[in-house]
Design a protein that fits this description.
homodimer; alpha+beta; 4-stranded antiparallel beta sheet; globular; EC 1.11.1.- (chains A, B); lyase (chains A, B); Dyp_peroxidase (chains A, B)
Chain lengths: ~400, ~400
């Protein structure tokens, strides 16, 4: 480089993100670059979501536009090495959600080493990135933690119509990356996978290109790939009482290490798009129990009008999924539409990647899904992937780390 | 519905898009919904790209954020039926790019019929949607058009390192859908596929989640999944002279029906992400011939500084791809990053879906790609899909249609 000793203004602004941690000498040594995504040296762009808190971000957080979800298997049986990974991941997640790159600000200063960060999110905004970790049932076997496995972390029963692919199901742990920019979400999962090299391996992953749920009370419910709004009365991130009742594990619940956490059900639901598209409007609306244009329940005018369930057909989706049909069972939905190209028959491999959070899956997803065995929609969908994760409480401060309440002896 | 005879204000605004074409009676009949994506009844939101023009939109148009690309095979041998399809597609493309739904404004008014539009883009903005059609070499066999096949529409030679999957290659025709909202792009391809039912079938398709090229002169070049900026001196949509010289087929070129068109090369390039991520910064920068942070060519300070090719290693990517190494060969790039989940070994199935437009592929992509046989980057990438399409000129007005200059006897 010609001018490493007198960086140009744009280069200076690129280098100027972190102040304290940054060795300008590394830049002068050539080849080093700084890793800030923001122009402003002192304050990241406004669109960063706080990483620290009593609960993990990415649950009650207003739903971002895009998703990259990854399930991992743990390949080490060294508990200390795994705990070290959880701490390294936490630090990387703290940086990436703030809009910074992984690592100490420059590429470690060493041109001879691989860069700490893969670089494709350089120059992009924080984009409301959230990273949420969950632990699957199989993790508890690996490290002699079976006595700490929550009773609520059941093995999900087989549901009517399930056609699960084991290569799209399960996993020792998961990372849910949500962001308004897909490149930021993909970058985050890739860098966590890279940090975990030799200790974890991605079992399966799923990109979601369009959110199908809102956790913002005044927002329009986004449409799924059937063209319908669904899940209108989703729990909003501002509804403290409903979150406490239906989403967050309480201090009085067992086990104590899960207090402030939640349980996540992930289901890959393939839609038979081409068949659906040949179905009459009347039948489509009967099946959902809503009109297609406005999203109003049968007999009502507006999407958010209270549904009158008995006006719907007995097998209507809204009717069967409604809390009144399930002893009040209520879940927080955060699903995304996916399209993974085309299958061998020229049909879109598309559908809904369903994500739901709840305080207890035995009082949330399981009874609702059992009720949906009668759903008229089942003719047009198929569940092809499934996983359940215990989502631990939030990382409270800069010294805390993902999973501490489970793995730390003091907890 | 309770109030179809006195629509509520929000419903009225939903119904009020098209004025002339809209039968309010259909709404009163129940179940019918209007198909506007914009609040304003008279003017679509500002972010619609003009569909009519001498050239198709989606080539020189400033690159949108997201892509859904589909290659189709034609399953009918009825030329008239196929021409009818091209006309139907044109009308649907005209509507969707303007932010309207497919069909006559309501769901055909008939609750007993499938809706004209699948509905998932209802309420979304036009999102700068462009739809661009191209014709593959095999199409000319199907309808006795071999005498009209352009000489420039060659069968691409095999290049060093090619590992092409025929299920991700070729196609009788293609649709490139670009938009800032992926749901709008996916909706467009899905609805065109649906209109083509029985005449065409999707052969393969590809989603791109992040653009890797810019056709806006002042814009920063976006980064690819290797974390680098590439293709800095891309042709800008405002560079009329370079577009005329390198992209648009001229009136003096053969065949006449292609005047105003272009040729599109599509290549699915898988990146060996995990291997790349373990490569030193110095080696990465040597391979590209740029620094990673700023994107400046070797020995220079800024991305857009003129590269000094002899300062780079002989096998550096920038050096080998540069027009000066290829007798001036220049192409317009519009590629997108893709991530299609994970392969069976836990590696990201990710890379670059390369899209390049040029006036003559024999003077554009082919010599450049031959030159890249020596590219140091080849250790980290593999071309796994390939297709070439003749992209006809633009649709000039409301009576014109995609492919008229090829199929119409008057042309």
């Amino acid at each position: 480089m010609t001018d490493t000793n007198s960086p140009s203004p744009s280069r200076r602004s690129l280098l100027g993100w972190g102040g304290a941690g940054l060795a300008l000498g590394a830049a002068a040594a050539g080849g080093a670059v700084a890793m800030a995504r923001t122009e402003d040296a002192t304050e990241p762009a406004g669109s960063a979501i706080a990483f620290h808190g009593a609960h993990q971000a990415g649950i009650a957080t207003p739903v971002q536009d895009r998703l990259h979800f990854a399930a991992f298997d743990v390949t080490t049986d060294d508990r200390e090495a795994f705990v070290r990974l959880l701490k390294d991941w936490t630090e990387a997640a703290r940086r990436m959600t703030a809009g910074h790159a992984v690592g100490e600000g420059a590429y470690g200063g060493l041109a001879e080493a691989p860069p700490d960060d893969t670089g494709e999110a350089l120059g992009l905004k924080p984009s409301r990135l959230t990273l949420t970790i969950g632990f699957g049932p199989s993790l508890f076997e690996k490290f002699g933690l079976t006595d700490r496995r929550p009773e609520a972390l059941v093995d999900l029963p087989k549901f009517a119509g399930d056609n699960l692919d084991k290569n799209r199901s399960g996993g020792d742990l998961c990372i849910q990356a949500c962001a308004d920019d897909p490149q930021v979400a993909v970058h985050a999962v890739r860098n966590l996978a890279r940090i975990g090299f030799g200790k974890v391996v991605i079992r399966w992953s799923q990109l979601g290109f369009g959110k199908t749920s809102s956790t913002t009370p005044e927002a329009q419910t986004p449409r799924n790939l059937m063209g319908f709004k669904d899940g209108t009365r989703n729990i909003a991130g501002t509804e403290t009482d409903r979150l406490k009742k239906f989403v967050w594990v309480d201090e009085k619940d067992e086990p104590a290490w899960m207090a402030g956490g939640s349980y996540l059900v992930a289901r890959r639901i393939r839609m038979h798009i081409e068949t659906w598209d040949r179905t009459s409007l009347q039948e489509q609306e009967d099946i959902f129990g809503r009109d297609k244009g406005e999203g109003a329940p049968v007999g009502k005018a507006k999407e958010r009008d209270e549904p009158f369930l008995k006006a719907m057909k007995p097998d209507a989706h809204v009717r069967l999924a409604h809390p009144d049909s399930n002893h009040g069972a209520t879940i927080l939905r955060r699903g995304y539409s996916f399209t993974d190209g085309t299958d061998g028959l020229g049909r879109l491999d598309a559908g809904l990647f369903f994500l739901a959070y709840q305080r207890d899956v035995r009082k949330g997803f399981i009874p609702i899904q059992r009720s949906l065995a009668a759903d008229a929609l089942n003719e047009y969908i198929q569940h092809v992937g499934s996983a359940l994760f215990a989502v631990p409480p939030g990382v409270r401060d800069k010294d805390d780390w993902w999973g501490r309440t489970l793995f730390s002896k003091e907890a």
